[in-house]
Design goal:
This protein has one domain: Class I glutamine amidotransferase (GATase) domain (Rossmann fold), CATH 3.40.50. By secondary structure, it is an alpha/beta fold. It has six helices and 13 strands. A nine-stranded mixed β-sheet has the order 2-1-3-4-13-12-11-8-9.
Length: about 200
């Protein structure tokens, strides 16, 4: 199984690659469109500003390629910004258009309610898990977060986990071929590694 990690200049590549290696996956880190297009599974991490991330994707000629890759039904794991950019638009940077794979917006936490950014561990409440990615894990589950923005999907059926931080938000989504995590599974200990491993297993061939 060829797993490629997209390097578009704003990703937390080291910890993601280390987590995959721990799971026995020798992933390639690349920004080469040709390698991305032939991946069996694509991992898109990301940290920093959405505007910079979309600008980087555009400068590498990767926007249409990513849209085509995901819409073709090939497996995609998006982490943090790699999750947020799946949606229509984010409030960040004065309003930044995303990839538009799913309908929904990315909003900023209200600074009066909670400390922004959210940094550290928070609970993951599993609400919908058709792939069984959290099967075998005890409860409660916790993930590690580092975010100022959160996703509001229009389709509630894709929400995998929810988390409370001043507001209740979709901390992960799941479809048959897409796993998007606002928390960092590569930094979330056994829980995060389990979820990544199960997603990889569902698409191993």
């Amino acid at each position: 199984m060829k797993v490629n990690v997209l390097d578009y200049g704003v990703g937390n590549l080291g910890s993601v690659r280390n987590a995959l290696r721990f799971l026995g996956v020798d992933a390639s880190v690349t920004s080469d469109a040709r390698l991305i297009d032939v991946a069996d599974l694509l991992v898109v991490p990301g940290q920093g500003a959405a505007g910079d991330a979309m600008a980087a994707l555009k400068s590498h000629g990767l926007v249409a390629l990513l849209q085509d890759y995901i819409r073709s039904g090939r497996p995609y794991l998006g982490i943090c910004l790699g999750y947020q950019l799946l949606f229509d638009i984010t409030e960040e940077d004065g309003g930044t258009e995303g990839l538009g794979i799913f309908s929904g917006q990315v909003k900023r936490f209200g600074s009066r309610e909670v400390k922004v950014p959210q940094m550290g561990w928070n609970q993951l409440d599993v609400v919908n898990d058709p792939l069984g990615l959290a099967t075998g894990l005890g409860r409660p589950l916790f993930g590690y977060f580092a975010n100022s923005y959160y996703v509001t999907p229009e389709d509630p059926t894709i929400v995998f986990t929810q988390t409370d931080y001043g507001t209740r938000f979709a901390s992960a989504i799941q479809t048959p071929t897409v796993l998007g995590c606002q928390f960092h599974p590569e930094k979330s200990g056994d829980v995060g590694l389990h979820i990544i491993k199960e997603f990889l297993n569902r698409h191993a061939h």
